[in-house]
Design brief:
Helix content: 55-70%
Oligomer: single chain
Order of helices and strands: HEHEHE
Low-confidence stretches: none
Shape: elongated
Radius of gyration: 22 Å
Structural class: alpha/beta
Largest sheet: 3 strands, parallel
Strand content: 15-25%
């Protein structure tokens, strides 16, 4: 086998080893965070804006996947004109809503 093909195989082996070790470390860190950590997230925005709904849904996804003890607080900065989606989501999803 030539030196070129040995180098190519060595690169593939190194990438494969790195991928396996990185995946294992990510799984271990995620598990340790779930078991031993709690966090607080404060979101600021207009409750009538669609971007605020997206922020809240992203925060809920993070809570569900990584940090079950995450406490989420939404602080209302808008003037309250229109349908306040953030207030309804906060009431249903155990999120503290501050006017």
């Amino acid at each position: 086998m030539s030196v070129f093909w040995q180098s190519v195989l060595a690169v593939f082996a190194a990438v494969g080893l790195y991928t396996v070790l990185h995946t294992l470390s990510e799984l271990f860190c995620a598990r340790m965070l779930r078991m031993h950590s709690a966090a607080e997230l404060t979101l600021y925005g207009d409750g009538c804006d669609a971007r605020s709904e997206q922020l809240i849904r992203a925060a809920l996804r993070i809570r569900r996947q990584y940090l079950p003890d995450l406490s989420i607080t939404f602080v209302e900065l808008g003037n309250g004109q229109g349908q306040n989606v953030a207030k309804h989501l906060a009431a249903r999803q155990n999120i503290m809503y501050l006017d």
